[in-house]
Design brief:
The N terminus is likely disordered. With 744 residues, the chain is an alpha/beta fold. It is built from 31 helices and 20 strands.
Amino acid sequence: MVYLCHEKKSLSIPKFKKKSDSRTRGRSTRSGNGTNRSANRSSSIKPGADKSLKTIFQKIGIPDKTPFTPDTFQLEAVEAIKRSDCLVTAPTGAGKTWIAQQVAQTIFNENGKVWYATPLKALTNSIHAHFRTLFGPENIGILTGDIKENSNAPIVIGTTEILRNQLYDAMYTGEDLKCDLIILDEAHFLGDEQRGVVWEEIMIYLPVRIPLLLLSATIGNPYQIADWLKSIRGKICQVIESHERPVPLHPLFMHPSGTLFPLLQKKIAKEPGKSNEQDNSDKPEALYEPGRLHKKVYKFHTAKRPPFMAPPGKLPPFAEILDILNTYNLLPAIFFLKSRAECDAATRICNSALLSKYPKKKKAMCERLDQLLSKNPHLKNHRQRPYLEQTGTAAHHSGHLPTWKVVVETLMAEGLLLAMFATSTVAAGVNFPARTVVVLNSDRFNGVEFMPLSPSEFQQMTGRAGRRGMDKIGFGMMMPGKFMDLKYVANLISSPPLDIESQITINFSMVLNLLLSNTPDQIRLLLEKSFASYLIGHGKKTRKRARKKFGKDLELLWFDFLDHMDLLVKENFVTIDGQLTEDGHWASKLRIDTPLLVAQALRQNLLPENDPPILAAIMGAFVNEKEFKDDILYHQTLPKKLKETFLENRMQLKPFAIKLIKQGFDAPNLFIQPSVMIYRWAHDTPWDELTTQSDYAEGDFARLVLRTAENLRQLSKLTEPFPGIAKTAKDAIELILKEPIITI
């Protein structure tokens, strides 16, 4: 049984008062225009709520159990895919996975085959587990960079890169992809700067006979995408839209005093004597003025010295904040913080007092935790475990082991946590429903710099608030802070979703794989089918940006292709007329980030043929993304063979890397630190010893190992030109893919 933190609580609403800002002492770290000022926070915060929230809070509760009834848009989508392609765009949590289940069931009943592609391994694993329950383990396969199981099953769940690679193979062999339906989940990734090219390639290469079902969060230009697909596939792509959240979202603001206010100003009732709450109390858009802050929140926002919740550089008092949320039945909650360190620190400043009020919940959580950890002994002593068991809260971010993240995800999904502290990356894809989502910053780190949240990012985050079938309403709560622009967030709530634009780019792996089965002229025709090409000729909003990025006639994209091909010709991977050489054929199988550098290492016999740990270590240097000073080359005793092999690779590959850079292409710096880490891990150095003595967080090192294993997997395919390397690569994979990175 799942015990929810509000399950036994009364729905009586305490302390509804009109609050005065003078109640709080202290000064803010941020003035109305964002400048820092010295300030002090009140020593404690206390529960309080503006009286206008009473009616809303009284609606908190668990909906009555009723038989599931599909929404209209779900039924329309199931019918549409029977006769055409279909693009479904609906808010997070609206029930798009149910559509996928139904159409997959239809194909399965007809003895057909379904390919269900997702952008994230975590989401792939989640869908895989769900579909195994629905269809039976024997009928479900999974294909990711880490896992390959039951790949000939009627329903295969995998990552988009694997599907794209299968389409490359089908073009080369001339065989049709053995599939009767493609489902692309999280299809708004078409506009992702890093990954969008893969989605676009799939849509271009996919045989017309295979129906395409796209499932997406709300996007701004679904009809434009559908028209593009129709233009290249010659068949209608029907758009099914839903803008209704399954659970209404109410935006809140927590004043530093602990008092809760509506974030937005209430609308004036249209009929005398009749309030908007009476008319549309379940529809926040009918209650509040879009973009207009509640008068008390506006006063706080524009104050020269507003009070603040925590001193500069310190976290808010999360233990007290959780108490306030619990007082008003607003738990469980997801807090979005700006960094990994903040997420971990947040769990440490919570206490056990709140969880002790729910002994059944604590008992259920601890029992489930024991079950989840039984298969991975390393996790039993995970440094986050004591905080989780004592406080009922957990951190979730990319610095943690994938296996630990699965534990946290499971506990949150089953309603066994009071709160989860996460970075904004958790907002995408995986199902983490909560009653309340708490946003502390109006910007996010995109991997390079902090940028304001986009409407789509904000909707992804708040989309986790309110659990269908478990909540009548959900809440998005904004908290004050140095990096919170309340007015900006108020506008985000009603902002339309952004249009998706083409992110197609040329890379060496793409060029090699397209030249396997196409002439350069045929490839130009393929590029003219791109979404970029369509945007150049259609749509006032997107045409100008597309022409600037890709050229008025797609010439910039084509010139980029020619530049890649010219270098391949000069390096004897491709002939002058666009045919792959012998080296080009095997290099095309290296579907990795740096195929040419690895191919050059193979051509120069730089990779060890009979030493799996050394081979793994060298490949670790190729996939590494961190910067180092490389001081340990000179100040630390290193295994002689590892040092010699690494230096030989770096010295011999340097001229080729310089060629790449001079031609405008990227070439990674090779650092020995990741090689040493992989080498020691392959030789069974204890995990804790490795991660505590390095600059790698557990999750970062796990990712390094997984990416190294994927590169080794690509090498293992080269059985004809390099049989020794291929065998050694297979052996190396077995040495590095082990607990706690994977569960045996």
